[in-house]
Amino acid sequence: MSFQAEQYTIKREPFYRSVANEVELFDAAYSARMPVMLKGPTGCGKSRFVEYMAYRLGRPLITVACNEDMTASDLVGRFLLDKDGTKWQDGPLTMAARMGAICYLDEVVEARQDTTVVIHPLTDHRRQLPLDKKGEMVEAHPDFQIVISYNPGYQSLMKDLKQSTKQRFAALDFDYPEAATETDIVARETGVDTKTAEKLVQIAHRARNLKGHGLDEGISTRLLVYAGQLIVKGVNPLAACSMTLVRPLTDDPDMRDTLDAAVNTFFG
Ligand SMILES: Nc1ncnc2c1ncn2[C@@H]1O[C@H](COP(=O)(O)OP(=O)(O)O)[C@@H](O)[C@H]1O
Ligand SMILES: [Mg+2]
């Protein structure tokens, strides 16, 4: 493995608690080098799952956090000026294609559609990436795979993937794990006892029922982990929950009262 690939290799096994048969399904998709889309709300385990799969498959992982200012050059690469003139620098997608990494485009809808189309020739039988400015055609390494994440909750007409992009991917649905699994995750990730983890998960369930009734998103597993992390530092659970489960979620005073009341039911 090259020095560069080594840098992107995950050395320690990430803790990932599987929720269904997603590991086997991803294994099969990877063995066909099929592009995969992970769909689900924020903070439910998509990124952790990719890290785990990259470790399990022994592939380097290159993650790109997509945003609307991102251009095709940010993915593919560009000429840079240095003292000797111009020098080509590969972007993360090109690097991943050359080294046979898993390239993870996180929150891909955030990128503009004219940026997203550069992945097309890598996602079909061609498995090529044209570097137009450089005049080079990169043939993807046989181990290269492309994975994207996508939050269906944020879908709007302005921000959605084109069908021509969507239909290049197999998709796995992710959601917050069921209560016992999520309790286990929160306890393992933070070191809080099972009782505390159970309470945090129950608070999350109350908040998730308010989605669409004043809340855009429920409390994520990520926020439950944050709450647990503060509690093990000795922060009073009421303060920890207010800081991690209530305030990040909403600015609406009534909704905050409702969530605070739920927290009080379990930790008051
Ligand atoms: N199945 C899981 N196994 C282990 N940890 C999980 C799992 N699901 C969620 N987590 C925890 O939740 C956090 C947020 O998950 P992440 O993968 O970053 O969410 P996403 O990428 O879906 O926004 C992780 O850092 C981890 O602590
Ligand atoms: Mg993520």
TrEMBL record:
InterPro entries: ATPase_dyneun-rel_AAA, CbbQ/NirQ/NorQ/GpvN, CbbQ_C, P-loop_NTPase. It comes from the Bacteria. It holds the Pfam family CbbQ_C. Keywords: ATP-binding, Nucleotide-binding. Gene3D superfamilies: P-loop containing nucleotide triphosphate hydrolases. Residues 182-265 form the CbbQ/NirQ/NorQ C-terminal domain. Residues 35-169 form the ATPase dynein-related AAA domain. SUPFAM superfamilies: P-loop containing nucleoside triphosphate hydrolases. The keyword Ribonucleoprotein does not apply. Belongs to the CbbQ/NirQ/NorQ/GpvN family. PANTHER family: DENITRIFICATION REGULATORY PROTEIN NIRQ, MOXR FAMILY PROTEIN. This is CbbQ/NirQ/NorQ/GpvN family protein.
